[in-house]
Structure formats: structure tokens, C-alpha cells
Design brief:
It comes from Flavobacterium artemisiae. Keywords: Hydrolase. Its EC number is 3.5.1.28. This is N-acetylmuramoyl-L-alanine amidase. It catalyses: Hydrolyzes the link between N-acetylmuramoyl residues and L-amino acid residues in certain cell-wall glycopeptides. It is a single chain. The protein is an alpha/beta fold. It has one domain (26-199): 3-Layer(aba) Sandwich (Aminopeptidase), CATH 3.40.630.40. It has helices at residues 2-21, 49-63, 83-93, 126-141, 157-161, 177-183, 186-199; strands at residues 27-33, 43-44, 47-48, 69-73, 97-104, 114-118, 148-153, 166-173. The strands form two sheets. It has a six-stranded mixed β-sheet with strand order 4-1-5-8-6-7, sandwiched between helices. Strands 2-3 form a two-stranded antiparallel ribbon. β2 (43-44) and β3 form a beta hairpin. α4 (126-141) crosses α7.
């Protein structure tokens, strides 16, 4: 009997040790900060889209407290990446989804709000992308700081060529004073990052 108890105890320790070192597959979500390097993106009064998109991407990663979700930043640092390089990296990592971050400008200074794009050319993941897009736009607009525009179709390279659900988020307009003040503020960027994280759960 004592030997049986010893054997069971040893097996228990081994099993516990095995489970303790077994890794659980995490959800991988890629955040693509638009532009970078010599590609400034939208620019007004010295304010550059590439800086805003990277700042919010970094905040999304920092704010993530979900141990089962890994946030991977496609662009860390201010450097240029070709669209083909971005897409190739995404597909090699095989994430659950990708969110591309941008801000816009418009010759009409009254144009404002948040808009999200998907591509119908990515037929395999189009419906899932639409669902994600609707969730993201609802969450960001729920703060009342950015007007809700709509989910639109667009043939953007990354949206067409990624092998997973993919959306592109236009987080306001630099050409609109209210939007610009919000998306360049620390509190505004943190709030947008929080809402994007919430929508990805």
C-alpha cells in the first residue's frame, strides 16, 4: 500500500510539473501602425499621422492585461515598411486578426469622426472582418468624442491580402480641430486604445 501511495504521489508531482510547463496557445492580434519613416501619412501643422498611429498602437500593447492575448506591433519604431512586407509578416505570424491604425484629412474641415474599412475582395474573412469593424466603430464612438461614421468597403492592399480578418481604422481627422485636439491628446489616445482593446475581446 505504501509503495502504491508513493507511486501515486510521484505521478502527481510529474503531472503537476508537466502542466506547469505546458504553454497555452495565445490569441495573436497584430496592430499595424500606419506609415512610418519617410512616409509621414496625413500631416497638418507639423502633426504627423505616423506618430499618432504608433503612439496608439503602443498604448494598445501596454494596456493589454489579458494573459491569453498577445498583442504584436507590426511596426515598432519610426521606420518605413512596404505594404508587401507588412502583409508578408502578418501572414507568416498567422494571427487571429489584424487592426491597421490611421487618421485622415479632408479639404472640408467639418468632416470628422471615426470610420472603419474592410475589403470584400478578402472573401474568406469578409464577414468576420465586418463584425469586427462594427464592434470597433461602436466602441470608439461610444465615448462621444469622435462621431460615428460608417463601415466602408475599400480595396486597401493589407485588407485584400491578409489571410485573416482585417480592418483599417481611421481614428478621426487631423483637418478637423475637435478631432485633432482629441487624437493628439494623451487622454484621447489612451481612450481610443482602451476602446479598441475592449472591442477585440
Amino acid at each position: 500500500m505504501k509503495n502504491q501511495i508513493k507511486i501515486l504521489a510521484i505521478l502527481g508531482v510529474l503531472l503537476f510539473g508537466f502542466l506547469g510547463f505546458t504553454t497555452i496557445d495565445k490569441r495573436v492580434i497584430i496592430i499595424d501602425a500606419g506609415h512610418g519613416g519617410h512616409d509621414y501619412g496625413a500631416t497638418i501643422n507639423g502633426i504627423q499621422e505616423k506618430i499618432i498611429s504608433e503612439s496608439i498602437a503602443q498604448k494598445i500593447k501596454t494596456l493589454n492585461k489579458d494573459s491569453n492575448t498577445e498583442i504584436v506591433l507590426l511596426r515598432e519604431g519610426d521606420h518605413f515598411m512596404e505594404l508587401s512586407e507588412r502583409t508578408s509578416t502578418i501572414n507568416n505570424l498567422k494571427p487571429e486578426l489584424v487592426v491597421s491604425l490611421h487618421v485622415g484629412t479632408n479639404s472640408n474641415a467639418t468632416a470628422n469622426g471615426v470610420e472603419v474599412y474592410v475589403s470584400s475582395k478578402n472573401k474568406t474573412f469578409n464577414e468576420r472582418s465586418k463584425m469586427l469593424a462594427e464592434n470597433v466603430i461602436e466602441k470608439i464612438a461610444s465615448t462621444g468624442n469622435l462621431t460615428k461614421r460608417k463601415v466602408s468597403e475599400a480595396p486597401f492592399y493589407i485588407l485584400k491580402n491578409t489571410e485573416c480578418p482585417a480592418i483599417l481604422v481611421e481614428m478621426g481627422y487631423l483637418s478637423n480641430e475637435k478631432d485633432r485636439n482629441y487624437i493628439t491628446s494623451e487622454s484621447g489616445q489612451t481612450e481610443i486604445a482602451e476602446k479598441i482593446l475592449e472591442s477585440l475581446k
